[in-house]
Amino acid sequence: DAGVTQSPTHLIKTRGQHVTLRCSPISGHKSVSWYQQVLGQGPQFIFQYYEKEERGRGNFPDRFSARQFPNYSSELNVNALLLGDSALYLCASSARQGLSSYEQYFGPGTRLTVT
Amino acid sequence: GENVEQHPSTLSVQEGDSAVIKCTYSDSASNYFPWYKQELGKRPQLIIDIRSNVGEKKDQRIAVTLNKTAKHFSLHITETQPEDSAVYFCAASLNQAGTALIFGKGTTLSVSS
Known about the structure:
By secondary structure, chain A is mostly beta strands.
């Protein structure tokens, strides 16, 4: 039974460039959340999508955007990269929103380095 | 918004000892409290969680307690083993559409044999 998958594993970009990160949730899960984890800190919430609609947004600038596709996979896009965007980007999936849907399971993450 | 404080930031114990990590949260409406274990270079793994209608939950050597009045919850690991060494994160959340997990800053647990 496949868990959450993310691609690419590692990425090196230059300041000002654009990046797209991808996530495939656990089969049957319809909700995807994105988190940014800076070294030495806990994950910080960026977005949550459920049934292809944005359901929540964290305190991140408009340079960050995301979308969810009909197969429930998701993309996170970051424009005009800054050095401070260097982090581990984690995707988490959960079964659904509402009752009995609390558990979020994380993917392995994409390590983004901005130079 | 919700804020989660986690203590201690580092914890060193001898194999076989118990370890306790404590978290406090600010939003009394939060009702779901998971704990994640993250080994170096790996994904956070959900190890145990508790909902606000329960005061304690146990799974083998791991237990979590919740005090809603004081707005704090704790992770207890008994009979620690070297493979328990990792960073542990607590989190809090509301059961509402679009609600995120709000994480503490983590506790680095080192178990020496």
